Amino acid sequence: MIAAATSPLALGVPFLAEALQKLGLNIEYLSRPEVRIILGLLVFCLGLIFLVYSLVCSFNVQIEKQKDNIKLKFGIYWDKDNNPLCPSCKLPVSYGKYAIGGTGYRCFSCTKTFPLTDDVGNRLKPEQAIQNL
Ligand SMILES: [Zn+2]
C-alpha cells in the first residue's frame, strides 16, 4: 500500500491504484522504465493504426464520390474530365490493341477488353468518342 502510494502512477491516480490493488492486481511494475516504454510504444502503435485506418477510409470515400460523377456512353464509363473507366468495376482503363480481346479499352483489374462502339454497333476511335461525349 505504501509502495503503491509513492509510485508515480499511484500519485497521479491514487484511487485507481487502490482499486486495482483491492482487485489483487499489482501495478507496481507499471512504474518500471522498460514497462513504461513498452506501454508508450503500444499506445503509439495504436494511434498509428487508427491514423492509417482513417486515411484509408477517407480515400475510399473520395473514390466513391468519383464513381458517382460518371456517365455510361459507347460502352464505357466516362468521368467528368472525359477519362475512360471500366464499365464493370469503374477503375481507369487504357486503350490499345491487345492479344486477348482485340482493340478497345482494357481493364487490367477485370482482365477484359471493352470495344468502343456507337449506338448502332460501329467501332469508334477514342478521339471520335471523346468529341461526341
Ligand atoms: Zn474493371
Overview of this protein structure:
This protein folds into two domains: 66 residues; 61 residues, no CATH class. The strands form two sheets. Strands 1-2-3 form a three-stranded antiparallel β-sheet, with no helix packed on it. Strands 4-5-6 form a three-stranded antiparallel β-sheet, with no helix packed on it. A hairpin with a 3-residue loop joins strand 4 and strand 5. With 133 residues, the protein is of the alpha+beta class. It binds zinc ion. Zinc ion binds next to loops.
Shape: rod-shaped
Strand order of the largest sheet: 1-2-3
Low-confidence stretches: 1-5
Q: Distance N terminus to C terminus?
A: 79 Å
The number of helical elements comes to: 5
> Would you tell me the overall average pLDDT?
84
Please report the total strand number as a whole number. Answer: 6
